[in-house]
Design goal:
Blueprint lengths: L1 E4 L3 E8 L3 H9 L1 H7 L7 E6 L6 E6 L4 E11 L3 E10 L6 E12 L2 E9 L4 H23 L34
Length: 179
């Protein structure tokens, strides 16, 4: 996994042994998404993914502590998604709004997933998102490939209390991934 970071966005790429079409299905099909994506140690109960421009995204979770909503800005089947990514919390945490760009690219012997998350207020705010994306993409890799990534360039810091891959945030700060 590669990570590029600047003040307001973070980018990730992950290689998979499956074609981009299979990767796209795992990212967008409700039943597959429910099997691999568990942010903040929660499980999806309802997924609405209207895969068209202006189509709605609604993800609801078992614990009812938050939900994710959004709207597709661009949908190129099996190639690219751009959408708003809004976290609505039922507790005292402030709601958060981002833009995600997800690329699905075929390559020899598999595919590459590219993720860009925009709208972060700065580097410190990006840290829990980095770790959460790392966890989510590893979970997706295990789901699709049956094994964890061997080419992971993002490592946990030594000596950290490792709740989400190295950054020592509170569980409610881990926004994207989770196991």
């Amino acid at each position: 996994m590669e990570i590029k970071e600047n003040e307001y966005s973070i980018e990730f790429s992950q290689e998979f042994t499956v074609p981009a079409e299979t990767l796209f299905e795992a990212w967008t099909t409700p039943e597959q998404l429910k099997k691999w994506w568990h942010p903040m140690q929660d499980s999806l109960t309802n997924v609405q993914n209207d895969l068209q421009a202006d189509g709605e995204i609604i993800y609801e979770f078992e614990k009812n502590e938050f939900r994710v909503t959004g709207k597709y800005q661009q949908v190129d089947l099996n190639e690219k998604l751009i959408y708003s990514w809004d976290w609505d919390f039922s507790n005292d945490l402030p709601d958060e709004k981002y833009i995600l760009t997800i690329g699905f690219e075929n390559k020899e012997n598999g595919s590459i997933l590219r993720v860009k998350q925009e709208g972060l207020p700065g580097e410190e705010a990006a840290l829990p998102h980095q770790d959460a994306w790392k966890t989510a993409l590893e979970s997706l890799k295990t789901f699709l490939d049956g094994s964890p990534s061997k080419n992971n360039s993002v490592e946990s810091d030594e000596g950290m209390n490792d709740r989400s891959g190295g950054y020592n945030e509170l569980p409610e700060q881990s926004k994207v991934g989770g196991a």
